[in-house]
Description:
Elements: E1 4-9, H1 13-29, E2 32-39, H2 41-47, H3 52-72, E3 79-85, H4 88-98, E4 103-107, H5 121-129, E5 134-137
Helix pairs in contact: 4-5
Amino acid sequence: MLKNILVPIDGSEGSDRAVTEAIKLAEVCEAKLNFLYIANINQLAINACLSDVVLEAVTKAGNVILDRAMQMVPSGIKKEAFSETGSPAVAILDFAEHSGTDIIVMGSRGLGVVKGVLLGSVSQYIVEQAKCPVLVVK
């Protein structure tokens, strides 16, 4: 039975759909939802010198996205929000492995600059490398 559902979110339409599906799963399984926002610092480093102002803005943006996801969850469903920095694919897999995740529910594409042919590069990597089941929501 599923007890811990990891939902990586980035504010995209795909991640919003993943939140909706994860809520349905959590209701049926009486599972806890763990929302994870990853500030893609690697991408930011390419585009700008990372100052405290930039890092603060990224953190605030992540908090807005996490708060929105948390508000979508009906009362009675356990939920928690987490924020990390780094490469999204690596951070998602690391979090899943160390948090007792039973399933990862994520969007097929996020806000990345380059679009994959069928899946986004992060979701494709997670499907291939995760040690638990992955539900990719279109």
